């Protein structure tokens, strides 16, 4: 969101600390938020030291709340679907008495989802699924509005798990019965550390490739004792969040963090799923020469038919200027690959997991790490060669930029409907397994967003519906249909 950058630059140019700008309108005096980011102080350490091991929230600086509230209000204007769902369902309270553990990226768009879930009757406790993607001012706004938020940008690994545990741990006043996950970390921690409470969960909603993969592994091993909804493979999530969102946000992330000129640059995108397709389309549109690596012959054929040369990474690694991973796998870009990269090569990850680029292999005494700006590191070899690593191999478009709010509205509406479906389903409708979102709900999410474009759907006549064997109001495609 460009407005965010303008506001931040304005504050910086005036040389006025954010906390001072908002202190006069913050009525909260708290010791579980911290403004000591520069000193490397983790807010939860401050809370624990103050005798509050289980604070009501834990954020970087709650006095940023007014700025964060403006961010949320901007996002609401560009999220018509989730706002329409809130308006339609708030009186019915379909999530009444739902207690939801949330573990996702915490930004302005997520805040709109959180406030929608509570408007529909739920109580939530929320942590971040990524140590770098939290918008501190948004977390502050949610905390100031009395939401149990445990997140800040730049968490340590220990703080990351502490925050998730604050949401998952059952207490006399908090017995979670739903999980909304992005990556499977909340599910993993609760299953491992709070097994009896995990059995009381009515349903899990998971939105990432990595998290869905972990759910299927649990199901195969017989360890998944509650039903789960795979929204990552719903049409609305796959097409709109993965394809259209990444098509716009990859360029934004690279531009903001590196000031690159794309015309004429050579780039390689590892993986030609929906995320990879979006990245390739964006790079090609700006004049990049784009190579693709793939393990799947079907995706490889798609890439070739779309005009991209399909190669092995080793064939082009010495010549490319940009390397982007989008596979959801591990060890895609290794130390050996990075040894052979040209000086100034930019390396970033667009997959959920931070295992695609072997960052750990770069933390050796012979290499110098130089932080040049937020989320941008130069890795310098003894001979002076350097590569540019974004977000330490974590999700680049959320760590270095932000997502288009409209696309997140599609995903958020999908998540909300999946939670409503699992929470209100009759006892034996869903077994302890992983399910796809019903097609009718996918179509409903799409319909919520059509008025924004003044789009008018054609209606089937009775004769046409009979000829196709369809209900006039849908669903219009079988589950196996590939959009």
UniProtKB/TrEMBL annotation:
Annotated binding of NAD(+), by residue: 273-278, 294, 397
Cytoplasm keyword on record: yes
CDD domains: SAHH (cd00401)
Reactions that this protein is recorded to catalyse: S-adenosyl-L-homocysteine + H2O = L-homocysteine + adenosine
Pathway the protein acts in: Amino-acid biosynthesis; L-homocysteine biosynthesis; L-homocysteine from S-adenosyl-L-homocysteine: step 1/1
Cofactor: NAD(+)
S-adenosyl-L-homocysteine hydrolase NAD binding domain sequence ranges: 242-403
TM regions (residue ranges): none
Gene Ontology MF terms in the entry: adenosylhomocysteinase activity
Pfam families given in the database record: AdoHcyase (PF05221), AdoHcyase_NAD (PF00670)
Keywords, sorted A to Z: Cytoplasm, Hydrolase, NAD, One-carbon metabolism
UniProt entry tagged with the keyword NAD: yes
Cofactor binding comment, as recorded: Binds 1 NAD(+) per subunit.
Matches recorded under SUPFAM superfamilies: Formate/glycerate dehydrogenase catalytic domain-like, NAD(P)-binding Rossmann-fold domains
InterPro entries reported for this sequence: Adenosylhomocyst_ase-like_sf, Adenosylhomocysteinase-like, Ado_hCys_hydrolase_NAD-bd, NAD(P)-bd_dom_sf, S-Ado-L-homoCys_hydrolase_CS
The family this protein is said to belong to: Belongs to the adenosylhomocysteinase family.
Alphabetized NCBIfam families for the sequence: ahcY, PRK05476.2-3
Descriptive protein name: Adenosylhomocysteinase
Gene: LOC106124825
């Amino acid at each position: 969101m460009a407005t965010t950058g303008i506001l931040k630059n304005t504050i910086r140019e005036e040389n006025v600390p954010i906390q001072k700008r908002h202190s006069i309108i913050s009525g909260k005096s708290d010791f579980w938020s911290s403004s000591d980011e520069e000193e490397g102080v983790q807010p939860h350490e401050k809370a624990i030291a103050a005798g509050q091991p289980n604070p009501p929230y834990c954020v970087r600086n709650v006095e940023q709340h007014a700025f964060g509230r403006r961010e949320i209000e901007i996002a609401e204007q560009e999220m018509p679907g989730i706002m329409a769902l809130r308006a339609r369902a708030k009186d019915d309270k379909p999530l009444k008495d739902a207690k939801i553990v949330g573990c996702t990226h915490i930004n302005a768009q997520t805040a709109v989802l959180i406030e929608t879930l509570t408007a529909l009757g739920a109580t939530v406790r929320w942590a971040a699924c990524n140590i770098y993607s939290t918008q501190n001012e948004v977390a502050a706004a949610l905390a100031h509005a009395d939401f149990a938020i445990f997140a800040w940008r730049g968490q340590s690994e220990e703080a990351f798990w502490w925050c998730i545990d604050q949401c998952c741990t059952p207490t006399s006043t908090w017995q979670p019965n739903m999980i909304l996950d992005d990556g499977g970390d909340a599910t993993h921690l609760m299953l491992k550390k709070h097994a009896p409470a995990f059995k009381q969960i009515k349903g899990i909603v998971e939105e990432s490739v990595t998290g869905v993969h972990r759910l299927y592994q649990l199901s195969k091993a017989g360890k998944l004792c509650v039903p789960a909804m795979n929204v990552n493979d719903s049409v609305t999530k796959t097409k709109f969040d993965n394809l259209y969102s990444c098509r716009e946000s990859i360029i934004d992330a690279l531009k903001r963090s590196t000031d690159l000129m794309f015309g004429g640059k050579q780039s390689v995108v590892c993986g030609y799923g929906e995320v990879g397709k979006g990245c390739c389309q964006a790079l090609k549109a700006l004049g990049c020469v784009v190579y693709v690596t793939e393990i799947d012959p079907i995706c490889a054929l798609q890439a070739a038919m779309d005009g991209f040369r399909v190669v092995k990474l080793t064939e082009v690694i010495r010549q490319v200027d940009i390397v982007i991973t989008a596979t959801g796998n591990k060890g895609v870009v290794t130390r050996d690959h990075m040894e052979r990269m040209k000086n100034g090569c930019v390396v970033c990850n667009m997959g959920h997991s931070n295992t695609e680029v072997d960052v750990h292999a770069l933390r050796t005494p012979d290499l110098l790490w130089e932080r040049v700006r937020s989320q941008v590191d130069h890795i310098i070899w003894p001979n002076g060669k350097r590569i540019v690593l974004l977000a330490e191999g974590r999700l680049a478009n959320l760590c270095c930029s932000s997502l288009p709010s409209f696309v997140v509205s599609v995903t958020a509406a999908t998540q909300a409907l999946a939670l409503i479906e699992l929470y209100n389903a009759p006892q034996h409708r869903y077994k302890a397994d992983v399910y796809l979102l019903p097609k009718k709900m996918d179509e409903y999410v799409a319909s919520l967003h059509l008025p924004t474009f003044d789009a008018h759907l054609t209606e089937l006549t009775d004769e046409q519906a009979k000829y196709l064997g369809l209900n006039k109001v849908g669903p219009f495609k079988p589950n196996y249909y590939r959009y």
